[in-house]
Design goal:
- The protein is an alpha/beta fold.
- The protein has one domain: Rossmann fold, CATH 3.40.50.
- The strands form three sheets. The protein has an eight-stranded mixed sheet with strand order 2-1-3-4-13-12-11-8.
- The longest helix has 13 residues.
Length: 203
Amino acid sequence: MKVGIVDYGRGNIRSVENAFHAIGADAVLIRTPEELDTITHLVVPGQGEFGDCAANLKKQGMFEPIQQWAAEDKPYLGICVGYQLIFQDGEESPDAEGLGILQGSVKRFPDVGLKIPHMGWNSVQLTDPGHPLWNEMPENPFFYFVHSYYPEPTDKKHVAATCDYALPFAAAVIRGNLIATQFHPEKSQHNGLQLLRNFLALT
């Protein structure tokens, strides 16, 4: 088992790598499509602007190989913008295309008097608490969020957890071996590390 974390110049790459090392996983940074052949689990983290992150993946030649990886239902974890990118498009960058792995769009939080970005700890509500991704978790686990945009999946059956900030939104999705979270497991202490363990144990 070997975890490959896509380093495309965006996101807390080292924090994610260190979190996997903390649970004893063999995790490395990868930057080229050829390196996908050396790993068993793919992680796409990210922070920043939707279109900029998508452009960087294309520049590195990683855009289509990541799409293919997900199409083959190989273990995939998207974090923050790495979660948002699995959808088709986003309001932050109207002219940029997402990976389109799942149907849906990424929306900006409405202005209802709450601080944007949504930053800090918040609980999530699990749609299927018995799913192995949530093993050894409390009923409504807390995770750490930093984001101004949230995905709105077309097919609600993929929503694995919801969170309420300005409105209820999809905090995580699951489709087969594809996992993606708007929150940051690498910043979420015990629950975050447990989620990473559970991700590795899914296959």
